[in-house]
Amino acid sequence: MNAPSTTPRPPLRLDWGRWLRLALPYLLPPLIAAAIAAAVWEAWVEINDVSMFVLPPPSAVADALISDLGFFATEGLRTFGVAIGGLAIGAGAAVALAVLMAHSTTLERALLPIAIAVKVTPIVALAPLFVIWFGFGWEPKVAIAALITYFPVLINGIAGFRDVDPGALDFLRSLNASPREIFLRLRGPSALPYLFAALKIAATLSLIGAVVAEFFAAGQGGLGAVIDEENRLVRLDRLFAAIVTLAVIGVLMNVALALAERRFLSWHRSTWTPPG
C-alpha cells in the first residue's frame, strides 16, 4: 500500500487579472459617462461663475476627496458594512418568506398585505424608533437597511419560484420526486434570474437605508453622518466627495452582483452577450 503523499498543495490564489478583465466591461462605460458628465459640469460652473457655496466644480470635489482619501474610505467602509449586513438579513428573510408563499396561496394572501404595509411606511418615520429600540450602535442601522431591501427580493422570489417549466415539473413528478428535489432541481434554478435582478435593486436600496440610518444615529460615523455634517457646515465640496464615495460603492456592489450572476447563470439567456 502506497504511503499518502506529503507534498504540500499549492495555496489557492485569486486570479485578480481575470476578474479585472471580466469587470472591465461593466466599469469602463460608467467611467466614460462620469468623465463626460464631470467635464460638462466643470465647464458649466466656470462659464456661469457659480459660487462654491451653490455648486462646487468637480475639480474641487476631487481635491477634497483625494486630500482626505483615508477618511472617506473609512467612512465608506462603515456604510458598506451596514449595507451588506442589511442586505444579507433582508434578502435572506425575503427568500425564506418567498419560498413559503410560493407554495401556499393562503399564506401569501395572509402575509403579503403586511409586507406591503411595512414597505409603504416611510423609512424616516421608522428610523428614530429603531434608534430608540436598539440604541445607537450598528443594530438599528442594519435593521433599517434590511427593512428597506426585503420587498423587491420578496416579490421577485415569489414570481421566480412559481415560474417553472410545466413540462419539467410534470416530468419530475412522474419520477416521484419529492418537494425538496423539485425545489433544488427546478424551482431554485428557475428563481435565480429573478433573485439576481432583485438583488441589484436591493443593493442600492441597502445603501440608501444605511445612509438614512446614519442620519439619525448621530456620532456613529458613516457616509450618512458625513453628508449631514458637511451639509450643516456648508462644505459642499466635501459633501459631494462623500456622495461620490457612496456612488462608487454602489457601482462596485452592482458589478460584483453582475459577475456573480454571470458565474452562476451562465446557462441563462440573461447573461448572454448580444452580438455587435
Key terms for this structure?
single chain, 276 residues, mainly alpha, 10 helices, 79% helix, globular
Q: In the CATH hierarchy, what is the class of the domain at 73-264?
A: Mainly Alpha
CATH architecture of the domain at 73-264: Orthogonal Bundle
Spell out the CATH superfamily of the domain at 73-264: MetI-like
Mean pLDDT: 82
Helix proportion of residues, in percent? over 70%
User: Outline, from the CA principal axes?
Assistant: globular
Alpha plus pi helix count = 10
Rg value: 23 Å
Description:
The structure is a single chain. By secondary structure, the protein is mainly α. It has a domain at 73-264: MetI-like (MetI-like fold). The protein is 79% helix and 0% strand. The protein has ten helices and no strands. It has helices at 16-48, 58-67, 69-103, 105-120, 123-134, 138-162, 166-174, 179-216, 223-232, 236-264. It starts with 15 loop residues before the first helix and ends in a 12-residue tail after the last helix. The model has no long low-confidence stretch (mean pLDDT 82).
Provide the fold topology.
Elements: H1 16-48, H2 58-67, H3 69-103, H4 105-120, H5 123-134, H6 138-162, H7 166-174, H8 179-216, H9 223-232, H10 236-264
Helix pairs in contact: 1-10, 2-10, 3-4, 3-6, 3-8, 3-10, 5-6, 5-8, 6-8, 8-9, 8-10, 9-10
Provide a short characterization of the protein structure:
By secondary structure, the chain is an all-alpha fold. The chain is 79% helix and 0% strand. The chain contains 10 helices and no strands.
